[in-house]
Amino acid sequence: MFEYMEYNIAPWGASIAAYFFLIGTAGMVFTTAAAPNVFGAVAAPFAKFQKTGAIIALVLLAICVPLLILDLGQPSRFLYPILYFRWTSPLSWGAVFLPLFGLCIAGFIYGLLKQNRKLLRWTGIIGVLLALSMPLYTGLDLMVNQAREIWANPTIPILFVILSITSGAAVVALAMAFTGGPSADAARLLRYVLAFSLGITFWLILGLIMTMVYGSAELQQAWDVINSDYAIEFWGLSFVLGVLIPLVLVFGPMLVPAMQFAASPRMVTLAAVMGAVGAYSLRKVLLYAGQIPQIYY
Amino acid sequence: MTTLGLQAEPSYGVPGKKRWAMVIDLRRCIGCMACVTACKAEFDVPLGVWRTIVKVKDTGTYPNTRRNFMPRLCNHCDNPPCVRNCPTGATYKHEDGFVLQRYERCIACRTCIAACPFNARFVLPRSRTRVGISGVVDKCTFCAHRVAQGLVPACVQTCLGRARIFGDVNDPDSEVARIVATQKTVTLKSEKGTRPQVYYIKPDRVAVEQAASAPVSYAARADAAAFYRHNNGSRFFAGML
Predict the structure, then answer these.
(1) CA–CA min distance B126, chain A (Å)
(2) Per the CB < 8 Å rule, is A84 touching B105?
(3) A91 in contact with B, Cβ within 8 Å
(4) In sequence order, what are the residues at sequence separation of 6 or more whose Cβ sits closer than 8 angstroms to the Cβ of residue B175?
(5) Residue A116 belongs to some domain of the structure
(6) Residues A82, A208 within the same domain
(7) CB contact under 8 A, A88 and B240
(8) Are A118 and A165 found together in one domain?
(9) Taking a contact as any Cβ pair under 8 Å apart, which residues of chain A between 150 and 209 contact chain B?
(10) What is the pTM of this model?
(11) pLDDT (tens digit, 0 to 9) for every residue of chain B, 241 residues total?
(12) Quick check: B22 and B165 in contact, CB under 8 A?
């Protein structure tokens, strides 16, 4: 068979997958740091983590912004989505929320340095809302593409938020481990957060699988692509390593007395890190596999 | 349907409005690739990217085989998702139906490429030298500059077999409108709701396998394999080409 021409290259690659992961993680790390000021006593175990968390969120943001700008074909025009704002494009909203989020983190850090409780409360509340918008808008970036059925699914933004909670928890746990280890209260709270995020991820993945297995021809094609090109990432890294094993580690101590060892801060950190690996891998698979079925039609 | 952002209202069938459209008669296409060549020449389209392509499919098994040709280009949708997605208004829909690109405003975020159901968009490579425009998204324009001068698009002008027919589908006296009204035509991926304005006349069931094929067909597999080969294993955009 002769072919003089082929399809044009798929638009979004590794840097977008990395950006989606990092920006969601930054959002949830900041949420944890601001939690004592926003949610009160329930988040008190994270009080010691506030300064570290806010700085980590700022560092992650400092990685994300150049990553996103350099991925553009015209990096010098990075302000155009704000200057020529289009309300129909989630990317425009993201371009507005991103610097506002950075400002909130900076304000929060300033509030911590000056011990300004009012500033901490306001930047905390607004920052948490903006932090939530980070994974949400990246999910919306995919969801609005009606032509790519694996993405055009209202659960995608929710899934991205939930995955960010997991990866954020991993960074929080690691940061705490490097600064003397999380207290028993902080570890317990992190375990509850992980139980929530991993549990929902499990059901969302099942829903996604059902949608693809019993969906349209394009969705079935996407399922075929995932199981052939991305089987290891999807089943191995995302589902088994990223969800099932951490779920056992998180729920085990609640259900099986013999698994009390998994309640230790170290094991919670391990579960969170595995969950973060899965969170990255699942995003990458969805991003990549969502673009491939087009060449089959 | 309301107007979203800068997107012009859908104009198909609206009296007093133009709606440029194309009919591609697959019975007449002989796969000479003259349309692709004319397009490349008209716009200095660089190597490795295309505004229009003609997919070639061999179907059947020897000795009962058939070679089929499937010209593809931007479908200038009446409800284009690329326009809706663009964060800067670089992509817009002209009131006469063209979906066009403002190079000076494009940031090449490639969200329009992701939105397009027809793989009609690409990033102009940096290696382009003769024409100064690069690093932005480009696509077929239905040769809006020629149409404004009363000419037809370059691919239509050059088509040996008159497989490509262009005109105002809202004008009942135009050839395009007559064909769409009287012949059995199909559009690609009509289920996506984008209202494509490139109409195909099918030669037979087999030849449009590409447009409406079972998900795992020989043709689809071959296409995917060729796609991977073409991109040297890098299937995804990573920095400038």
Answers:
(1) 9
(2) yes
(3) yes
(4) B23, B165, B167
(5) yes
(6) no
(7) no
(8) no
(9) none
(10) 0.89
(11) 444 545 677 888 888 889 999 999 998 999 999 999 999 999 999 988 899 999 887 777 888 877 888 899 999 999 999 999 999 999 999 999 999 999 999 999 999 999 999 999 999 998 887 888 999 999 999 999 999 999 999 999 999 999 999 999 999 999 999 999 999 999 999 989 899 999 999 876 544 555 444 444 555 666 677 666 666 556 666 654 4
(12) yes
Residues of A in contact with B106 (CB under 8 A): 73-74, 77
Q: For residue A70, give the amino acid letter.
A: L
Is A224 touching B (CB cutoff 8 A)? yes
Contact criterion met (CB < 8 Å) for B88 and A13: no
Residue B165 lies in a domain: yes
| Residue of chain B with shortest Cα separation from A89 | B85
**Residue A7 φ then ψ, to 5°:** -65, 155
Enumerate residues 233 to 292 of chain A having a beta carbon within 8 A of any beta carbon in chain B.
288, 291-292
Please give the ipTM for the structure prediction: 0.91
Tokens 């409108």 belong to residue = B177
- Separation between Cα atoms, residue B94 and residue A163, nearest integer Å: 40
The amino acid sitting at B214 is A
3-state secondary structure A261-293: HHHCHHHHHHHHHHHHHHHHHHHHHHHHHCCHH
Same domain, A129 and A160: no
> How far is residue A144's CA from residue A203's CA, in Å, rounded to a whole number?
22
Q: Do B86 and A89 lie within an 8 Å CB cutoff?
A: yes
Q: Which chain B residues are closer than 8 Å to A73 by Cβ?
A: 106-110, 123, 135-137, 240
Query: What are the tens digits of pLDDT across the range A169-223?
Result: 999 999 999 988 778 899 999 999 999 999 999 999 999 999 999 998 889 989 9
Phi, psi dihedral angles at B70 (to 5 degrees): -135, 90
Specify if B5 maps to a domain: no
The CATH number for B113's domain is 3.30.70.20
A15 touches chain B (CB under 8 A): yes
The alpha-carbon gap from A64 to the nearest alpha carbon of chain B, in Å, equals 15
Domain count, chain B: 1
One domain, residues A164 and A117: no
Domain coverage including residue A122: 12-144
Alpha-helical runs (H) found in B103-183: 111-115, 144-148, 154-158, 175-182
Q: In this structure, is residue B9 part of a structural domain?
A: no
| Distance (Å, whole) CA A278 – CA A124 | 28
Picking from B37, B191, B227, B228 by the largest number of A CB atoms within 10 A of its own CB, the best residue to mutate is B227
Cβ distance B220 to A217 less than 8 Å, yes or no, reads no
CA–CA distance, A172 with A52 (Å, rounded to integer): 9
> What chain A residue is nearest to B115 in terms of C-alpha separation?
A145
Give me the number of domains chain A comprises: 2
Residues A106 and A154 both lie in one domain:
no
Mark whether A31 and A44 lie in a shared domain. yes
Say if B236 falls within a structural domain. Answer: no
